[in-house]
Amino acid sequence: MKIADIDLGEHPVLLAPMEDVTDPSFRLICREMGACMVYTEFVSAEALVRDIRSTTRKLQINEAERPVAIQIYGREPEAMVEAAKIVEQARPDIIDINFGCPVKKVAGKGAGAGMLRDIPKLLAITETVVNAVSLPVTVKTRLGWDCENKIIPQLALELQKCGIAALTVHGRTRSQMYTGEADWTLIGEIARNPEFRLPLIGNGDVKTPEGCAAAFDKFAVDAVMVGRAAIGAPWIFHDIRQYLDTGSCTPLSDAEKLALLRRQIRESIERIDEYRGILHIRRHLAATPLFKGLPDFRDTRIRMLRADTFSELSLILDEVEDKFLGGPRNTL
Known about the structure:
The chain has helices spanning about 25-35, 45-50, 55, 75-90, 105, 120-130, 150-160, 185-190, 210-220, 235-245, 255-270, 275-285, 300-305, 310-325; strands spanning about 1-5, 5, 15, 35-40, 45, 70-75, 95-100, 135-140, 165-170, 200-205, 225. With about 325 residues, it is an alpha/beta fold.
């Protein structure tokens, strides 16, 4: 599959943009594990225009993580165009527009998935951004605002007319947030519509190699995007890539998985500072499936998520490795 001139190979699997998750270290690890392209955390257009430091820092790209997309969101065409031009100077491979974020602080203000309530403005923003930059522009959105307004089949064709290079669709409406199960039916309808000629990326509830393979086979998408299942588990891309390429998968060992989490901790601290770097990484430690199902792990988990120094956290992870990951579970 190609997006513009960017060749992502056959059956590409992409890392979704996720706020406070897809930092440079995590993106690079996911690329090393097999993700074919990665996306930054979403970036506020208005904050970029105002040159807010915490926002401009999100534009930092490591050459080794390419191809990489920077995702922007906003509700005003002028700010979105100016932000896109700023992003272009950071030299990503792709600029992605977020019309899918459902959280109240974004959608409630008319940005992200909030744009699904104002389609003329959504299309105007898309077209002006496409025309303002030389980089490929893509869009990520949802099925519609709510279950009575699943407008994505027609919206996909309208977005195509705006000149975007690819479209990502998450299989939920905004009103669903992240509840229930993602519905890929309409995604498959778009993929099989001969009028739609762009690369189509499906997103939503892809949690296993088998589920990813089924998404390709059943819904005829050009690529699959993995989001929440990668939090605390960047090795999911290793498993999926191996399964897609060979039909089977040999998972990483628990020790190898823990080593990746340790690397995330170190690099998070190096990028920010010790205290905030550990706060940032707690989401991964809390979500990782590596510790799920471990017997009598509750107290250790509490201590791990309360640790606020690198030395304390390292000692707890040493204990986890010795006491839990080297025990009976590995001999089954």
